[in-house]
What does this fold into?
Amino acid sequence: MNKIKVGIIGTGNIGTDILLKLKRSENLECGMFAGRNPDSEGIKLAKRLGINTSTKSIQAIIDNPDCCDIVFDATSASIHKEHAPILKELKKYTIDLTPARVGKMCVPVINMEECLSEDNVNLITCGGQATVPIAYAINQVHPDTKYIEIAASISSKSAGAGTRNNIDEFTQTTRDALQEFTSVEKSKAIIILNSANPPVNMRNTVYALIDHPNMDEIKKNVNEMVHKIQKYVPGYHLLYEPVFENGRVSTAIEVIGLGDYLPKYSGNLDIITCAAIEIAQAYAKKLIYQRRD
Amino acid sequence: MKKLSFIDATLRDGSHAIKHQLTVSNIENYCIEMDSVGMDTIVVGHGNGLGASSLQVGLSLLSDYEMIHTARKYLERTKLGVYMIPGFGTIHDDLEPAINAGIDVVKIGCHCTEADTTRQHIEFARNADKEVYGVLMMYHMASINKLLEEVQKMESYGAKGVILMDSAGASTMEMVKKTVATLSENVNIEIGFHPHNNLGLAVANAYTAIQEGATIIDGTVKGFGAGAGNCQLEALIAVLEKNGYATNVDLYKLLDVNDNIMPQISNCIGGLDSLSIVSGMSGVFSAFKIPVLKAAKQFDVDPRDIFNELGRRKAVGGQEDMIIEIAEQLSNPLGSNEDDLTYQIGSLL
It folds into this structure.
């Protein structure tokens, strides 16, 4: 079967993790791995793997537009805002892994189908990918949910320069996504970097304020959602089922990574890179199907 | 000597002690009294900073905006500040609205190893022409070299100074001495210290930090704060006065806030009462307190003046009889012959 070529811009933690995950894909292959830093670990690794690399960032794709049909942008929010119109012009299906929010926000388990007809989709943030589906599942049972809050803690070691430089967009975009995907009018997102050594696993707590929560239905719906996410993020699991305590509903999720680029504590990479691959594979299938006609 | 400045976190960090339940009248009364004390900055907002009111760390009674708006009305001489930890608050939801509400000073904090998460916010506040400080929390968890790197990052973002928070109150004076001395020698911006009193060393640590070159102390009135509380500003100012440091703070007015305003905020505040501080500062035996209070009431004079005069005359334990004498003279300054009295007392000692 023909594989669809993808380009990756950004050779940091996220870009490199995607590159390694592509090896498992049946219908995707990397046509270009481009960044700006010739000394990045990611570039060195890609060269060793025999991947086509460049240090000219997006210029590599402009100069060689046939290198890919799909582009993963793993740079930073401000840089993606510059890249987005160029990639649109080049007619590349763009999967944005920064919190730039240029395109439609996508959580594969919720709205992937409708995102395949967009030209640019935004993957919110790792915290968003981990918690928005849970908020969505709770809100499905309780459209009367008054408030949703999430707290995502990730290890300092797994938060690369892009995350750190964009911590503000990261927090804001996660919060906004909670409202975008639910009918809840008030939301809050808290992001905590934990510098403990050995590094901690990615942990996410979701809180909801609901007047008379139907805990059995909430548990059932949240568990179903977790099973669906586990199909593309195997290390995603509940630390505790939804409980009603202190007047609030709360539940917590841990994400263990596959350990592709960074060690397994970096579930925050996997939750967003697995989502990116999931979307790219669906888009690739669509392309292969169209080209067959 | 470099000028010392004081940041009062009573209405911010202090509110941890009452689960962030400060009322509008608490803030009004506090700001009215404090504005003439001579503090450089009063910081308001949720205990964990702007945007932190949450199920995760506690919902505050008032919104950050209500707190800022209330304090702004009553602070004319004292600058109004806010604190924010990126990851809790954002520029759009929290920092920009605070700046629009008229604050003067911005402190941006992060865990002591994560300074690069403060760049956006420090730069934003700088571009809005605000006085901006970086804050490194839980400073005891990083090596001095690492702290130096993080302080230098904040310096490069445009921070006017960096405040180390001893968030767990884990410092010994030796740790403070080494850390602050190294940082002061190696950076050009101001270094500040924010102690906690878990080991009973908050004031001592603040004083040590000042001796090693720190120029900003961030504390609270009556040590109001979570757990063992913060650095009690009244006690620190007393120590500084005693040792000849010039400050702009009016100690008596600050002590009045301890006596009159803090009981309105909480009746279970720890920390030292104001006379204990004056007694320590003046070097007068603590057991003089009750007779001093009685005499002050009888002669309608300030008990603190009695303590200070007792100290000036070097009263020793057992000399409680001096109290009435001094109280009487203070109540009738024109009628006293102080020189003779001083001579008499001096000759007795």
Notes: The interface with chain A takes residues 51-52, 54-57, 86-93, 110-111, 113-114, 116-117, 119-121, 141 of chain B (CB under 8 Å). The longest strand of chain B covers residues 105-111.
